[in-house]
Structures are given as C-alpha cells and as structure tokens.
Amino acid sequence: MGVDKNPALIELLAYIQSTPNLEQQIDQVIAMHGLSQSHLHGYPHYNTTSSKGLSAHNKPAFLRLRESYNHRKEPLLLLVLLIFAFNNQMRFNAKGNFNLPVGKRDFNARLRRKLELFQARIEGDSFLCTDFRAMDLSTLSAKDFLYLDPPYLLGCASYNENGGWSVGDELDLLHFLERANHRGIQFALSNVIEHKGAKHSLLLEWCRAQKWHIHPLTYSYANSSYQTKHKHAPSQEVLVTNYASLMGVGNRGLSGA
C-alpha cells in the first residue's frame, strides 16, 4: 500500500496503475502542446545538446500545459508536467496550483522504460490518501514493513518550501516509528543526516537513543539541475532501520508515509 496526504499524487498513482496504453496517451499530449521528442529527433533537431538541455525549446509549451493543468486538474496533464518539469519534481503553491518551472529533459527512452517498469511494479497495489498521523497501526502486524520517505527537514528541496515540513512534523514521525517498533513492525526511513555543512542533530540523537541502525547511501546527482553555492559541501543521505541487515526485506509488503 502507498500512503500520502497529497490527493493529486494519490490520484496520479491510481491513474498510472489503471491506464492502458499510457505511453501513447502521454505522446498525444506532448504532440498537442508542441513539446520536444528527443527520442525521435535527437537534440540537434532542437538546436541544442544534451548538456544544454531542452528547456529553451520547451518553456513556452510547458507554461501553456501548466496553465491548462491548473485549470483542469487532470492526472494525465500532471504526469506530462512531471516528465518535463525541473528535476521531475512535484510542487504546488498555497492555491494548489503546480508551480515548478520547465526542466532540461523530456520523455526520452530512459524515462519511458522507467515508467513502464513502474507501472508494472504497482499493478495490484492500493493507495491511500491520508496523513501518517491518521494511520491505525493496529491494522498492521509484524508481517508488514514500513518504508517512509518524508520531506527532508535538513534542506530546502522544492517539496519542502514554504514551511512544508516542520520540526513538529519530524518529531511526530519519529514517535510514529517508535510506536510501530513497539508492535514489532520493521521500518526503513530515508533521510539526510548532513547537508550543506549542517548536521541533523535531532535525527542522530534519536537514532542513538533508540539504538536504530544508520545505513549510508551513495547517489550521484550530477545530472540534477540544482545550482547552489554549497554544491561542494558534503551531503549524506541515509536509510534508518530498526533492524541490522538490509538483506531479505525486498519481498515484504511496502507502505509509504
């Protein structure tokens, strides 16, 4: 089961799951709005290179598509926006309108394959639109597994702007995981313990007190569109678990909050 309190995300996941010929529907929207199709024409067709990206060509069409989605709120339009948006992220303003700018990439061959695999992976899954604080842990057992990927308190990613995730939210989540642990439920929490020279003291102290396990993760964001004066400062993503080994967990049930 996938859980998130953003109704647009839950609606999108259900749409991806239930829609046959999804790639063709996406291509129809792309063609209708005049967005780039680099998998067919290559970058030279748009007077650009892979390193420069396609944002200059796609910006006018992307803004028209964004305006259309904000008026109609159709999940297919949101999916195409995510494909062409800055770092493929989802962000809404206080009025509920999608407000990310255009990104460098389009619906290329690599992304098409990823979407195909994702659609197959979520076949038969269920999705629930709720806040993690409203979840009833008594409905879960030691046979269940919780994976949580919250907004990172340490940092200012687009999904955590305008006070989207507070210290209070972080504390509530940590207490939620303590209650899950008391019920014998295994969990894994994605987070960051160091970012732009700052340390996530709250999370580190909680892990020490609870004797949780911190597993460092290594990812490359070389293709990211982010620009920051701290780009050479260390940033350490981790997976926090209440079990020692990462082996043998992949086949268990998965929930997100």
Automatic annotation (TrEMBL):
SUPFAM superfamilies given in the database record: S-adenosyl-L-methionine-dependent methyltransferases
EC number: 2.1.1.72
GO molecular function: S-adenosyl-L-methionine binding; sequence-specific DNA binding; site-specific DNA-methyltransferase (adenine-specific) activity
InterPro entries: Ade_MeTrfase_dom_2 (IPR023095), MeTrfase_D12 (IPR012327), SAM-dependent_MTases_sf (IPR029063)
GO annotation, biological process: DNA restriction-modification system; methylation; mismatch repair
This protein's record includes keyword Ribonucleoprotein: no
UniProt keyword DNA damage, yes or no: no
Stretches assigned to coiled coil: none
Enzyme type, top EC level: transferase
Keyword tags: Methyltransferase, Plasmid, S-adenosyl-L-methionine, Transferase
Reactions that this protein is recorded to catalyse: a 2'-deoxyadenosine in DNA + S-adenosyl-L-methionine = an N(6)-methyl-2'-deoxyadenosine in DNA + S-adenosyl-L-homocysteine + H(+)
Family named by the database record: Belongs to the N(4)/N(6)-methyltransferase family.
Protein name: site-specific DNA-methyltransferase (adenine-specific)
Organism: Helicobacter bizzozeronii (strain CIII-1)
Classification lineage: Bacteria, Pseudomonadati, Campylobacterota, Epsilonproteobacteria, Campylobacterales
